[in-house]
Prior knowledge:
- This protein has helices at residues 56-63, 86-96, 112-123, 129-138, 154-166, 184-201, 212-215, 238-249, and strands at residues 14-23, 30-40, 45-49, 71-76, 79-80, 97-101, 172-176, 205-208, 220-225, 228-234.
- The chain is of the alpha/beta class.
- The strands form two sheets. It has a six-stranded mixed β-sheet, sandwiched between helices.
- The relative contact order is 0.18.
- The model has no long low-confidence stretch (mean pLDDT 92).
- The chain binds adenosine-5'-triphosphate (ATP).
- Adenosine-5'-triphosphate is lined by residues 23-24, 30, 32, 50, 52-58.
Amino acid sequence: MTPHAPPPIGQAAVAAVDLVKVYGSGDTAVRALDGVSVGFGRAEFTAIMGSSGSGKSTLMHCLAGLDTATSGRVLLGGTELTGQSDRTLTRARRDRIGFVFQAFNLLPQLTAAQNITLPLDLAGREPDRDLLAHLVDVLGLGQRLGHRPSELSGGQQQRVALARALVSRPEVVFADEPTGNLDSRSGAEVLAILRDSVRDLGQTVVMVTHDPIAAAYADRVVLLADGRVAGEIDAPNQGSVTDALRELAVPA
Ligand SMILES: Nc1ncnc2c1ncn2[C@@H]1O[C@H](COP(=O)(O)OP(=O)(O)OP(=O)(O)O)[C@@H](O)[C@H]1O
């Protein structure tokens, strides 16, 4: 078994089993996920890639309990998310999952420090002060904690969002195009921080991206095409990812 071989579904941090998602009905129905089975290993950084419309966002939203599948199962840490009530899903998202979005999604009226601890505050949990101090240090946010998002650059706002996602030690961080709104230097910083969180904190990260440079930071790439898993790349680099995407786009 290679170090980044896909984990057995039952041991994965999060997994999909035969997941199907159909939007709409009748003639206009779209089968966004068409029987996806895939596991995401603990303390691994996995990128989900595929052409536009291949089902990346739908898969991530179903895995994260933001959307419900038409059939199939989602397992978070071995527990079933499928069929749970909205209340249970909300709690799972709050307590067990961290999110990083392309648009940062910080609350404008709160300071950086307040944004970072907001999910823990809502859950009535105390932040781990040592971890918080470590994250503020590695993310270079020490001088920015009292600033509001409008007073921060895009890269700084995304680093606040990363601290918010990581400080609760979630079972999985889902990152949806986290570098999509950043220049290449800020994007590289964000990707390095995600990779280091996996290496140094044992964090599990699942990232949707279009960018082969971003995917090269991951341990493994899962390729989607037409709502199905079309392939995987272990220890990806920019070249292997670009080649795989090119092959997907040109049917044999
Ligand atoms: N709410 C919706 N209603 C109807 N169809 C939808 C909806 N959301 C997504 N789809 C369709 O499902 C398919 C998969 O969409 P999805 O957004 O998951 O793809 P994606 O790979 O994330 O695309 P992109 O890279 O462009 O963001 C597409 O054909 C899309 O048009």
